UniProtKB/TrEMBL annotation:
<protein>
    <recommendedName>
        <fullName>Cell division protein SepF</fullName>
    </recommendedName>
</protein>
<dbReference type="InterPro" id="IPR023052">
    <property type="entry name" value="Cell_div_SepF"/>
</dbReference>
<comment type="function">
    <text>Cell division protein that is part of the divisome complex and is recruited early to the Z-ring. Probably stimulates Z-ring formation, perhaps through the cross-linking of FtsZ protofilaments. Its function overlaps with FtsA.</text>
</comment>
<dbReference type="GO" id="GO:0000917">
    <property type="term" value="P:division septum assembly"/>
</dbReference>
<keyword id="KW-0963">Cytoplasm</keyword>
<dbReference type="InterPro" id="IPR007561">
    <property type="entry name" value="Cell_div_SepF/SepF-rel"/>
</dbReference>
<keyword id="KW-0717">Septation</keyword>
<comment type="similarity">
    <text>Belongs to the SepF family.</text>
</comment>
<dbReference type="GO" id="GO:0043093">
    <property type="term" value="P:FtsZ-dependent cytokinesis"/>
</dbReference>
<dbReference type="Pfam" id="PF04472">
    <property type="entry name" value="SepF"/>
</dbReference>
<dbReference type="GO" id="GO:0005737">
    <property type="term" value="C:cytoplasm"/>
</dbReference>
<keyword id="KW-0131">Cell cycle</keyword>
<keyword id="KW-0132">Cell division</keyword>
<comment type="subunit">
    <text>Homodimer. Interacts with FtsZ.</text>
</comment>
<dbReference type="InterPro" id="IPR038594">
    <property type="entry name" value="SepF-like_sf"/>
</dbReference>
Length: 134
């Protein structure tokens, strides 16, 4: 196609009989497609990292918070903390995650996953023994 033909196609108005008419089924399938497109998980940046922590004191939870502010996910193993310090750490990180519109999930006994808003988490880990039998 020559430049003149391309220009003519751009400048020529569309005739009424050139419009595409869709059936109701086609319209529904398009809306399903648009719904699927809206639910597609955005691609993560190539430098996205997950940090693993095993704090030995409450003060180390501030380092976890810094990584969350940098839009990095963190898995925190609380096994080495005394029970009251582990609870204090969970409370602190819950506040940090809330402030960042992120999420926090228990993924094991004394293990939590903290993610910023930019990193989505799908699925669920069951902690009930009854669920393991079925």
């Amino acid at each position: 196609m020559s430049f003149k033909d391309k220009l003519k196609n751009i400048l020529t108005p569309i005739e009424d009989d050139e419009y595409l008419e869709l059936t109701d089924e086609e319209v529904e399938s398009l809306s399903d497609y648009e719904t699927l497109q809206g639910s597609v998980t955005p691609k993560l940046p190539s430098d996205a990292k997950m940090i693993l922590f095993e704090p030995r004191s409450f003060e180390e939870s501030e380092e976890v918070a810094r990584y969350l502010k940098e839009k990095r996910a963190a898995v925190v193993n609380l096994h080495r903390l005394q029970r009251d310090y582990a609870q204090r750490t969970i409370d602190f990180l819950t506040g940090v995650v809330f402030a960042l519109d992120g999420s926090i999930q228990k993924i094991g006994h004394n293990v939590i996953l903290c993610t910023p808003k930019t990193i989505g988490v799908e699925g669920e880990i069951s902690m009930n023994i009854e669920d393991l039998d079925s």
